[in-house]
Amino acid sequence: MPNFHDFETFDKDLKVKCPYAQDCGGCQLLERPYKDQIEGKKAELLQLLKGANIPLPADIKALSAGASHLRDRLDFSLQDGRLGLYRKDRHEVLDIEVCAQLSPELQSWLTDFRQIQWPFKKGSFRLRIAPHGRRGVWIDLANIDIKTLLDEQNILKKLQAQAFVEIGQRRKVPVWTGAEFKLRDPEHHTWFQSWVGEVPVDLYCQVASFTQPSHKANKLICDVIASWVQKAPSSRVIEFGSGIGNLTFPALSEADSLLACEIDDLSLQGLEHSLNQLPPSLAHLKNRVQIYRGDFQKKLTQDFSDFDLILANPPRSGLMNFLNPLKELSLPQRPEFFIYMSCFPESMTRDLVTLNECDYQIQELYILDQFPQTSHYEVLTLLQRKKA
Ligand SMILES: C[S@@+](CC[C@H](N)C(=O)[O-])C[C@H]1O[C@@H](n2cnc3c(N)ncnc32)[C@H](O)[C@@H]1O
Predict the structure, then answer these.
(1) For residues 214 and 73, what is the distance between their CA atoms, to the nearest angstrom?
(2) Catalytic annotation on 343?
(3) How far apart are CA 246 and CA 236, in angstroms?
(4) Are residues 222 and 361 located together in one domain of the fold?
(5) Catalytic residue among 24, 222, 261, 343
(6) N vs C: which end of the chain shows fewer Cβ within 10 Å?
(7) 168: containing domain
(8) What's the CATH number where 181 sits?
(9) Is 342 in the pocket of ligand 1 (CB under 6 A)?
């Protein structure tokens, strides 16, 4: 097993200080020592699973990359000149200058970004730091405000001098023609990073794309996934919710083939781009991947009996009908392994009930605390089908 950061190494009294603790709605657990927070998350998960009568492994393990300063992307709102997160007690944005959740590079980007005076009443921004340090911002405003921003020119010029800029729900890129700004189609750049063993893999996507929140914590996730896929060497993998390929690459290191199932076109374009840009030592992995686009919560036309391992990282709503074809198969036809990752334990518990009915048993269960100081956490579990 790789050398994970076990949460046992954290000081039991460690508390993270935040000047906004009383007001900010972003973190719910700042008052609790960090170790105590993780014990609380473990207890909550245990209660959920026990309540659903899911047989449990001997223990739930916990991993963490740190109690603070982990995030490499942030989503802040703008309201009447204030830039930050919503208050605990009312629907009003709290102006936030420093945030203990942010990596030092992201904090420094936020500090510079805050120099801009926004002439709009409301909007939202995502700031990112790429694995190689590049700054990015996604600006989401009402259409009329986007037009004003393009016409005003100075703010965009100032921003583009220090960061890559994306605008609106369609993630368009403002391009200066010499006389005016025009919006062009989304571009794929390296905003995130996956891993094959100790080799980093650049993931191409947009600033606005879904990614995990932290480069550091994501290395832990990739290590867990790779170590579990090793238990099924040379396997044929089917992946639900591949997105831009964050779990695809650690899984590919051991798998013979992988079918990446995903609904989002732009994410799949990013995955294709990443596969085409692999470093020479990993270029052979490209031939192991097939991409399959569709809404797999509704219907999957693939036959699960063609696979040895199912890898799932669904949205909040869980797998829904994706698991239906599994029920139709006899025990030996079902893939032997199932890896499930989720940041929404309620829908995951629902799916684990179905998997239990299909004779899968949890072998290993981890809480990966990539949202310290908040009530959120990532769950990773490895299940194995009973022998026929
Ligand atoms: C939690 S994200 C995981 C992405 C990726 N595994 C990662 O670590 O970045 C869930 C993914 O499921 C995809 N998704 C959501 N609904 C889907 C559906 N109905 N069918 C297929 N994929 C879906 C989303 O577009 C998203 O990429």
Answers:
(1) 7
(2) yes
(3) 18
(4) yes
(5) 343
(6) N
(7) 73-189
(8) 2.40.50
(9) no
Q: Which of 191, 201, 209, 210 to mutate to test the pocket of ligand 1 (most atoms within 8 A of CB)?
A: 210
Ligand 1 pocket, residue 210 CB under 6 Å: yes
How confident is residue 13, by pLDDT bands cut at 50, 70 and 90?
A: confident
pTM value > 0.70? yes
Pocket probe mutation, ligand 1, options 72, 219, 242, 377, max atoms within 8 Å of Cβ: 242
Ligand 1 neighbour 245 (Cβ under 6 A): no
Task: Encode pLDDT of 56-101 as tens digits.
Answer: 998 899 999 999 999 999 999 999 999 999 999 999 999 999 999 9
Task: Answer yes or no: is 311 within a domain.
Answer: yes
CATH at residue 276: 3.40.50.150
What pLDDT is recorded for position 1? 39
> pLDDT for 24-61, tens place per residue?
999 999 999 999 999 999 999 999 999 999 999 988 99
Domain count, the chain: 2
- Tell me, using a 6 A CB cutoff, whether residue 313 lines ligand 1: yes
Distance of CA 56 to the CA centre of its chain: 26
The verdict on 310 and 353 lying in the same domain is yes
Say if CB 241 and CB 261 are below 8 A apart.
Answer: yes
Pairing verdict, β 309-312 and 181-184? unpaired
Please report which confidence band the pLDDT of residue 2 belongs to, taking 50, 70 and 90 as the band edges.
Answer: very low
